[in-house]
Structure formats: C-alpha cells, structure tokens
C-alpha cells in the first residue's frame, strides 16, 4: 500500500485550469447575445466543446460559460465563432480566482515576492502583506492576503514545514472619499465634497481639527471609523 492520497485543495499542488469564460460577439454594431436564440447558443457550444457545466447570459449581453474539464478549457479558447456568429473568448477576470487571509509569524521577514514564488506550486499567484499604521509609521504584520488561481480555497497551505490555516478574505465596504457614502468610489461620485472628519460639506479632512462627526450615522466619530455601526453593517453585507 502506498501513502494515503491527499484530498483535493488540501494545500498540496493539484492540476488547475480556468473554469469560467466570457464569450463576446465580434461586431461593428456592438451586437450581443441578448437576441440570439438560446437553442442555437446551446447547440453551438455543445457541438464545439461538448456539454459544459453551465451557460448564462450576463447583463452585458455576453455569455458566461463554465467548463467541466481541462480539455474544454483548452477548446473554448480556440473558438472564434458560434455557428455563424464571430466571437472572442477570454477567461473571466475574477471568477477564476479566490482570496484568503493567513497569519504566519515565520513569514514576517520574507518579501511578498519570495513568498509568492515559494507558494506558487499550491496555486498562489499573488501575496499582499497587511500593514498597520501606528504613531504615523507603517508597520508590517504577520497577516497576508493570498490570491489563488482557482475559485475554491484550500483547507490550508504549507509555508515550508509550517501549516497555515486559511480563512476567506472579506474586503472592507467600498466608501467614497468624496461624499463619504458607501457603495461607490470617488471616480463615480455625483455627490458633494464632504469632510470625513467633521461631516461638513465643502472641504476635505486633511488639516481639519473640528469635532468628529460621521456623515453616515451622525455619530461622534470620523466617517472612516471602523467603530461606526453602519460600517459594521456594511461589512456584514459584503461577507
């Protein structure tokens, strides 16, 4: 009897491939698949790569296809048409990856680049260290955000001989740095410039010494405070 097999995604290297793909129509009139028969689409995809895991029409009118095997992943990238419809195919930007957080003091003195290289065999394609600001100084921590080239997170990863548990990475709520509201960025803001410290419109928080007041909940704290009940509520929604 040989050694016991490791379960999939247990922190050891396994064969991975992109499973989600975006199919766009190639058209000078910006046509999409909204008005294309779903029967035609299904037959064309099945005839080209076989039966896939799923096909969905996105709001943009493009198709989101989930393949069922590495062979299908290779085949779908070679497609330039569905039936008589010219198309382009690209892996989905975010659905083929996942993020987690680990805590490992043994990695504290290593660079992100070195950690990324060493963990590459376990599907890690990017490592970002979490830093904290204390007394005006940015300090590194033992916490890292890992990005995997698979939509499923492993149970753990191994940093050399150290086994590290993983937990899903939950990003902070998106807050606008202009109006201080949640749900959009400064670039797309249609609101009014509002101070993140005192909640008064017309100026930024830099240099402001007024009494703290939150724009969002009107509490006695800054709009970027993590003690804000509205921030905590948004964090739960994101998770």
Features of the shown structure:
239 residues; Alpha-Beta Plaits; 3 domains; five-stranded antiparallel sheet; 4 helices; flat; zinc ion binding; zinc-finger; Znf_CCHC; Znf_CCHC_sf; CCHC-type domain-containing protein
Structure in words:
The chain is α+β, with helices and mostly antiparallel strands. The protein folds into three domains: 20-91, 2-Layer Sandwich (Alpha-Beta Plaits); 98-168; 172-238, Irregular (HIV-1 Nucleocapsid Protein), CATH 4.10.60. It has helices spanning 38-49, 70-76, 112-119, 229-238; strands at 20-25, 54-57, 63-66, 81-82, 85-91, 98-103, 124-134, 137-148, 156-159, 162-165, 167-168. The strands form three sheets. A five-stranded antiparallel sheet has the order 2-3-1-5-4. A four-stranded antiparallel sheet has the order 7-8-6-11, covered by helices on one side. Strand 9 (156-159) and strand 10 (162-165) form a beta hairpin. The radius of gyration is 24 Å and the shape is flat.
What order do the helices and strands come in, and which of them pair?
Elements: E1 20-25, H1 38-49, E2 54-57, E3 63-66, H2 70-76, E4 81-82, E5 85-91, E6 98-103, H3 112-119, E7 124-134, E8 137-148, E9 156-159, E10 162-165, E11 167-168, H4 229-238
Antiparallel strand pairs: 1-3, 1-5, 2-3, 4-5, 6-8, 6-11, 7-8, 9-10
Order of helices and strands: EHEEHEEEHEEEEEH
Q: Which topology of the largest domain does CATH recognise?
A: Alpha-Beta Plaits
**How can the largest sheet be summarized?**
5 strands, antiparallel
How much of the polypeptide forms β-strand, as a percent range?
A: 25-35%
**Can you list the strand order of the major beta sheet?**
2-3-1-5-4
Q: Helical content, roughly?
A: 10-25%
What do the pLDDT scores average to? 88
Q: What gap, in angstroms, lies between the N and C termini?
A: 44 Å
Number of helices: 4
Beta strand count: 11
């Amino acid at each position: 009897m040989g050694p016991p097999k490791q379960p999939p995604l247990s922190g050891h290297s396994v064969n991975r491939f992109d499973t989600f793909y975006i199919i766009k129509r190639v058209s000078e009139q910006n046509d999409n698949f909204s008005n294309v028969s779903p029967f035609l689409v299904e037959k064309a995809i099945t005839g080209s790569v076989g039966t896939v895991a799923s096909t969905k029409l996105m709001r943009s009118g493009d198709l989101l296809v989930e393949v069922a095997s590495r062979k299908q992943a290779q085949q779908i990238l070679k497609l330039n048409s569905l039936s008589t419809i010219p198309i382009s195919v690209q892996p989905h930007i975010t659905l083929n990856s996942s993020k987690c957080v680990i805590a490992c003091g043994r990695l504290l003195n290593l660079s992100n680049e070195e950690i990324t290289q060493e963990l590459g065999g376990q599907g890690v394609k990017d490592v970002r260290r979490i830093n904290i600001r204390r007394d005006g100084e940015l300090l590194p921590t033992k916490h890292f955000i890992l990005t995997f080239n698979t939509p499923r997170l492993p149970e753990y990863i191994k940093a050399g001989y150290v086994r590290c548990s993983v937990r899903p990475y939950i990003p902070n709520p998106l807050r606008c740095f202009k109006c201080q509201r949640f749900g959009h960025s400064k670039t797309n803001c249609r609101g009014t410039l509002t101070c993140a410290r005192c909640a008064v419109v017309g100026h930024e928080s830099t240099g402001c010494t007024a009494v703290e007041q939150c724009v969002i909940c009107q509490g006695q704290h800054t709009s970027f405070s993590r003690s804000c009940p509205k921030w905590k509520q948004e964090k739960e929604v994101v998770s």
